[in-house]
Amino acid sequence: MIHSEIEQPASPVGIQVEPENLASHVELVDETQNHTSPVVESADTEESAPESEARTGADRRTYPRYVFTAAVEIVADEPGPRLKTRVRDLSQKGCYVDSDSPFVLGIVADVRITKGVESFEARARAVYTQPGKGMGLMFTAVDAAQLGRLNTWIAESREIAWLAANRRRSQRVLMKIPVRVSDPTGAASFFEEDTHTLAISAHGALIVVAAPVYRGQRFTLSNVQTNAALECVVVHVDRVPGEQTQVGVEFMLPNPTFWRVAFPAKDWTPRHPDAKSG
Length: 278
Fold this sequence. Notes:
2 helices, 2 domains, Thrombin, subunit H, 6-stranded antiparallel beta barrel, 39% strand, elongated, 15 strands, 278 residues
């Protein structure tokens, strides 16, 4: 439990997860050759990532929250309380903060989140409270100048979450599936490219892309074999000189049926009873 204090700022705490290079060279299963036994990379030694308790259904579906730790100062409209504590997680539309004495629902306040030498400011409203634990704040007004910092923090947190998920939350199936990526916005940067996956999961994929892409970019990913398409976001870019760029993408909404692959159970390992041949 993080105890909030009045007029005593909390120290910013940085995210400690070190991103790993997921783009390791592996022998791929080419689905176009009708292989029936996909190669599975086990993640049985990892523990589950912490999740916030401030996840409402609509927010979780539309604006995923990511683990994010930083100092925060919350000043309610006068006359009102002033709180200095820590942020536990962050989304495009709000955050969750630890507090022994959360604000009353509906209270409006100015929020200033500080991480290292960077800060973000917004107006917010208390929309979720847990007595003795904390509260969820929804951003109600964000200046355009502040959006860049928020988007950067979200992109960094999303990448860390994606890397962690591929290590422990979901079993990655190493499989080569033909896909098409395209820019859905129709902007000047429009591109369309036929390529293939290196690894897949219910939450996204690792693909190779020739076109220049950047973290946080959104595009449409199509499964060439089924013609199914969905929106995804670039969460990880690994550029190696002389090789194709390997890009980690996350579905905007989890979709375990998109690949038409039966993913192994979360507790599957090479030692699992189901892995033993008769």
